From TrEMBL:
Residues 677-703 are annotated as: Disordered. The gene is ftsH_20. HAMAP family: FtsH. It comes from bioreactor metagenome. This is ATP-dependent zinc metalloprotease FtsH. Keywords: ATP-binding, Hydrolase, Membrane, Metal-binding, Metalloprotease, Mitochondrion, Nucleotide-binding, Protease, Transmembrane, Transmembrane helix, Zinc. Its EC number is 3.4.24.-.
């Protein structure tokens, strides 16, 4: 029992020395010690040095007349040192400023001598001042002297001897010569230490920056020590993309399963999709699931102002990756270095980006081998990438990450509402998914966050359905500006404009039905309308035409009611023109132009100065666009003229209430004749169409 107790005590015993931190020397301690020593020497006298004070002529004249000096030394004909006798210093209060202070740490002072320093401007003028003092001596001392011999003795003894001395300030001259070199050396050392510090502080297992490591890769390394917590369970939706990426991860974990069949691991996978769809999140999940070294960096990390740095960083990245194989390299926004070569407008110049791309192509699939190194990249501009980069052997797979559909939006909402405190009775996740067509995963995350902020702003304990709807409106249209002052005539114009959109869309079969209309300014829009569009995979010509007609309904209403139009239709005209151009030039939906498409899916035409069609064809395209838009405009005016009374009633309600809903339109227009078709459509959603731009935007359009 005693033995066990002894062992227990030993196990509980802690060595106090072992836990103490090691002593580390810091160079700044030397600087502090030097400053302390200089301060002590400056503010205290040690009693063994000469004490000197600067003096003016009036006081020097008194000293000379009292003959309390022992000698006068003229230094370099610049100043004079007037040494005072020690007895005079101790007895006469005139020289109290030469009395020494207490010595260092209370040591008793033991001054050898003290002197005054008199700085004269001109040596000859100083000689004349001395002669005046000598004459005063002679006049004072010869009083009562009767014999000439006595007077001659007094005159000869009344001379003030000036001892000229030439001094060279060895330390001052040396310092003036050495100091510039010392400053340069100190600056160089500090700069060197800063660069070394920048290199050692960067991540990636020694891969870092610094002036001497400028050619090193900036990739950050994630391994067992820097583990990523994101997994595939955190990625909602993207089922097809997840399947292909998970196969790569599974190959790294269980290679025998594939190699037994003769399969080889893909050398690279390119994630392609619109912004905010989860490409980087998918890469994080790969880093969290793969359990192999994961290098993460951006395409812009290769870009540098120095020639050859980008290519050097590529070489260093792959060299480090080969040492840690098997591993994964993730390059985000690869279009920063992967754009198609030969498109530089400044011909003859050295394009550093092209050199970097050439090195990347060589490393990915060149003469050497990269066994066990998988490249994962992401971009939303795959159309501008170089063809050599996209070929098999470099990026074997192109994984498209599209905007989520209804079911995927439901899954994304479930992920982002997991940590939210919301009213589960009033908030329906499926309803929210229907209200957000065209939203990316990042947009949905923003909706959930905005709903929490809106609920907190109103001091609510739970987030309710209206908070989510307000968040959707906030993200689509911007912040509501209820305090913005609008003149009554402008308010009426805006009301008729929005009523025109609502009326026309209500009467057209393929136009998206209305949810609500508001004339409260929001963001850059003075008014806005929310619709319920179908989620279509293809769109017919009649559907596009009906959408164009509803877009022009606002301007048509202004024309019919007021006899003139305003600049408020800027956004409508822009969208209509682009839609008509696409129908004529891209989709082949015009009879005169025919079944032709001038769309370049490769994206290479954006660097060119020429069009893929002749001047005559360009003129025909312009005429057909104008004809198509004018036809839609006349159709909108025809619908509004037929329903003028209902238009007026709807506009007046808007002026009065500022916000009207679908139920208000049903009371005025009745149920839509296409209601049965809409009821069979399950994927209806809430989207806002900004129909009236702010005054600033309108002024820009006019100018």
């Amino acid at each position: 029992m005693a033995k066990n107790q002894t062992n227990k005590n030993k196990s509980n015993f802690k060595n106090p020395i072992k836990g103490k931190p090691k002593f580390t020397f810091n160079i700044y301690w030397i600087y502090i010690a030097v400053f302390i020593f200089l301060g002590i020497m400056f503010f205290t006298d040690n009693g063994d040095t000469k004490i000197n004070r600067e003096i003016k002529w009036e006081k020097l004249q008194q000293v000379l007349l009292k003959k309390d000096y022992s000698k006068i030394i003229v230094v370099n004909k610049d100043f004079a040192e007037v040494y005072i006798k020690l007895d005079a210093i101790k007895k006469d209060s005139l020289y109290k400023d030469l009395n020494p202070k207490s010595g260092f740490l209370g040591k008793e002072a033991n001054t050898k001598e003290g002197f005054y320093v008199y700085k004269f401007g001109d040596f000859q003028y100083f000689r004349d001042q001395i002669k005046d003092v000598e004459n005063q001596w002679i006049a004072r001392d010869t009083v009562g002297a009767e014999s000439d011999v006595k007077k001659s003795e007094i005159i000869s003894s009344s001379r003030i001897n000036l001892t000229p001395v030439t001094r060279k300030n060895f330390w001052g001259e040396s310092l003036s010569f050495i100091l510039p070199f010392v400053i340069l050396i100190v600056i160089w050392i500090v700069f060197f230490r800063m660069m070394r510090g920048g290199s050692s502080s960067s991540g990636g297992g020694g891969i870092g920056g610094g002036i001497f490591n400028v050619g090193k890769s900036k990739a950050k390394l994630y391994d067992k020590e820097n583990d990523v917590k994101t997994t595939f369970e955190d990625v909602a939706g993207l089922e097809g993309a997840k399947l292909e990426v998970m196969e790569i991860v599974d190959f790294l974990k269980n290679p025998k399963k594939y190699t037994d069949l003769g399969g080889k691991i893909p050398k690279g996978a390119l994630l392609v999709g619109p912004p905010g769809t989860g490409k980087t999140l998918l890469a994080k999940a790969v880093a969290g699931e793969a359990k192999v070294p994961f290098f993460s960096l951006s395409g812009s990390d290769f870009v540098e102002m120095f020639v050859g740095v980008g290519a050097s960083r590529v070489r260093d990245l792959f060299k480090t990756a080969k040492e840690k194989a098997p591993c994964i390299i993730f390059i985000d926004e690869i279009d920063a270095i992967g754009r198609a070569r030969g498109k530089n407008l400044a011909s003859g110049s050295n394009d550093e980006r092209e050199n970097t791309l050439n090195q990347l192509l060589t490393e990915m699939d060149g003469f050497g081998t990269n066994a066990g190194v998988i490249i994962l990249a992401a971009t939303n501009r795959a159309d501008v990438l170089d063809k050599a980069l996209l070929r098999a052997g470099r990026f074997d797979r192109q994984i498209h990450v599209d905007l989520p559909d209804l079911e995927e939006r439901k899954a994304i909402f479930k992920v982002h509402t997991k940590n939210l405190k919301y009213d589960k009775k009033s908030v329906d996740i499926e309803f929210l998914a229907k209200q957000t067509p065209g939203f990316s995963g990042a947009d949905i995350a923003n909706v959930c966050n905005e709903s929490a902020l809106i609920a907190a702003r109103h001091n609510k304990k739970l987030i309710n359905k209206q908070d989510f709807l307000d968040a959707v409106d906030r993200i689509i249209g911007g912040l509501e500006k209820k305090n913005k002052v609008i003149a009554p005539n402008e308010k009426k114009t805006i009301a008729y404009h929005e009523a025109g959109h609502a009326s026309v869309s209500w009467m057209l079969e393929h136009a998206s039905p209305l949810v609500k209309v508001t004339i409260v300014p929001r963001g850059q829009a003075l008014g806005a309308a929310w619709y319920l569009p179908e989620e279509r995979q293809i769109t017919t010509k009649s559907q596009l035409m009906h959408e164009m007609i509803s877009l022009l309904g606002g301007r048509a209403a202004e024309d019919i009611v007021f006899g003139e139009v305003s600049t408020g239709a800027l956004n409508d005209l822009e969208r209509t023109t682009k839609m008509a151009y696409s129908m004529v030039a891209y989709y082949g939906l015009n009879e005169k132009i025919g079944n032709l498409s001038y769309y370049d899916s490769t994206g290479q035409s954006e660097y060119g100065f020429t069009k893929p069609f002749s001047e005559k064809t360009a003129e025909n395209i312009d005429n057909e666009i104008h004809k198509m838009i004018e036809e839609a405009y006349q159709k909108a005016k025809e619908i509004l003229t037929t329903n003028r009374e209902k238009l007026d009633k709807l506009a007046m309600q808007l002026v009065e209430k500022e916000v009207i809903f679908r139920e208000d339109l049903e009371l005025i227009f009745g149920k839509r004749p296409f209601e049965n078709v809409e009821e069979n459509t399950n994927n209806n959603s809430n989207i806002e169409e900004d129909t009236t731009d702010s005054n600033n935007t309108s002024e820009k359009e006019v100018n």
